[in-house]
Each structure stands twice: as structure tokens, then as C-alpha cells.
Amino acid sequence: MGGLRGHVIPGTMFVSFLIWWLIGEVLQNGRKGGNPSSSRRKTRSVAFQPLWYLCQGPTISKIPVEPMTKVIFSVIGVLVELPFANSATLYDVHGEFMAKNLPNYGHATMYCFFGLSGVVDLVMWYKVLPPPPRFDYLVLSLAFWMEGLLFFFHLHGRSELNVRLHTILYITALTTAAVFVLAVISDEILLYMGFLKPYFLSLQGNWFFQIAFVLFGQNPWKSNHSNVEFATILFSFHILVLFVIHLTVYTICRDIWIKIRPLNERLWDNGSDEEADLNRVENH
After folding, report:
1. Is 241 within the bounds of a domain?
2. Residue 255 sits in which domain range?
3. The whole model's pTM is what?
4. Where are the extended beta strands (E) located within 67-220?
5. 234-263: per-residue pLDDT in tens?
6. How far apart are CA 46 and CA 129, in angstroms?
7. What does the buried/exposed string (b/e) look like for 127-164 if buried means 16 or more CB atoms within 10 Å of the residue's CB?
8. Measuring CA to CA, which of 41, 75, 204, 275 is 20 to 30 A from 178?
């Protein structure tokens, strides 16, 4: 699906996940900052340390909501691209590929790989198989690699403006894939993933929206030299503005947790002292 809906749907999915990742990172930093003894508590979430974020709460934290959502989103994407768009037919009566449906199959394939990432997350969470460490990072990297590959070969016969917009998209996807691969093999870059994950996802999600409204909005851009050149400048502003937004949010949240950390530490210490006193009484 190459129209407005075909670009708004993946953009919405990416933006939804980047918002969730931002929230998850804030809450995760809060738990680390507010509970200095949490690293010594052997909970499943600490031992597992998945790519995705757990929900808060004694009951819902036991449910892998994010991987399930990833799989559901992927299934919805495939359904929208193929049967709902009347594009599920791959061959015509002569046994030839139906060219008009192939772009939809490309988009559906992209969703399948992100769905595979969700399935791997579930397999790791429920310990169905013992994969290598950070295997979920590797599989999500594969999904971004395939997104970049599919869009790289998605440009034949398109206008110069269309090619420029999608070229920027697949470069971003391949860069995101490279970052996740580095997170698999490097502990140093893993420290920055809390910032990098939502940032690169925001670039892709917002650029999907940009492509949708540039090519299929109420006033589509003409494919001329000026518009093609400005598309690159526009993406540069996306990089700049989103970086400032993410850095601001990250800094504000960090400062908030630093300010409330002493209070949380006192509460935690008082709770620990009371628990120790209670244990001494029970022992006597």
C-alpha cells in the first residue's frame, strides 16, 4: 500500500513504541535511582534484562505486554496491507506476479520481521529456548535491516522526490539496525540505548508521517529539483529538533530522579531498619 494510509499506519506504530520506550526508560531509571538495593534483589526482571520494558504493578509486570503488542501490531499491518487492501493475490491467471500487489507484499514482509522480533521476545521471556545473551537485540536489528533492504529495492520507476524520501527512510532504518547490532557486542553502547532506541524510532515514525503528507496529503509536493533538495534539509531539521526534544526529556527526567533519590533512599533505609527490627523480635 503506497498511499497515505500505508505510511501513516507504520508511522503510528513506530511513534507508539517510541512513547512507550520513553516512559519505560523514565520508570526504569526511577527504580534504579529510588531503590539503591534493587540490584541485590534477585527478581526475574533484573535477571532477565530484556530489550523491552515491563509494565508497573505486581500482576501486570508478569505479563510481557510489549512483545504481545508488537506481534498484534504486526498482524494488523499484514492484514491491512494484504486482505483488507484486496492485494493478497500474488499471481494472475497466467501465473505471473501481479505487479500492483508487490509493494503491499513488501510492506507485509516488513511487518512479519517485526512480528518475529515480538515472538522471540516471548520465547525468551517464557524460557521456551535458551538463546544467546541479547538475542532480542539481534533479532530486532534484523527487522530493521530487512526494512532498509525492502525500501532500498522499493524505488524502481518512482519520481525523484519519492526516491529521495524513501532513500532517507532506508538509510535511517539501516543506521538503526547497526546501532542494535553494536548493542549486542558492545557494553559501552548498551549504556546509551535508553536514549538511542526511542530517538531512532522517532526519526522513522515521524519520517513515515512526513512521506505520507508530502506525497499523498491535500497538497502533494511536485517532484522538482527544489523540492527534492529541500527534502534532505527537512530531514536534517527532523534530526535536530527530535534530538533536542529527546535530550531535554532525558535531562529533565534524570534531574527529577536525582532530586527525589535522597528521599527514596531514606524511605528505603527506614523500611529496611523496620524489617530488621521485626526479624529480631520474631527470632526472640
Report:
1. yes
2. 4-264
3. 0.84
4. none
5. 999 999 999 999 999 888 887 777 777 665
6. 19
7. eeeeeeebbbbbbbbbbbbbbbbbbeebeeeebebbbb
8. 75
Please check whether residue 211 lies inside any domain of the structure: yes
The full DSSP string for 185-250 is H-HHHHTTHHHHHHHHHHHHHHHHHHHHHHHHSSSPPP-SHHHHHHHHHHHHHHHHHHHHHHHHHH
Residue 282 counted as domain residue: no
How many other C-beta atoms lie within 10 A of the C-beta of residue 98? 13
Residue 97's DSSP bridge partners are: 91
Q: Tell me if 86 is assigned to some domain.
A: yes
Residue with cell 512513547: 19
pLDDT of residue 1: 57
150-192 per-position pLDDT tens digit: 999 988 889 999 999 999 999 999 999 999 999 999 888 888 8
What angle (nearest 5°) sits at the alpha carbon of residue 237, between those of residues 234 and 241? 145
Q: How many CB atoms lie within 10 A of CB 42?
A: 7
12: closest CA among 205, 198, 216?
A: 205
Contact 22, 247 (CB under 8 A): no
Distance CA 99, CA 102 (A): 5
Task: Answer yes or no: are the C-beta atoms of 195 and 246 closer than 8 Å.
Answer: yes
Q: What is the pLDDT of residue 257?
A: 73
Euclidean distance between CA atoms 16 and 201, whole angstroms? 9
What whole-number distance in Å separates Cα of residue 88 and Cα of residue 79? 9
Cβ atoms < 10 Å from Cβ of 186? 11
Looking at residue 271, its pLDDT comes to 45
Chain Cα centroid distance, residue 110: 14
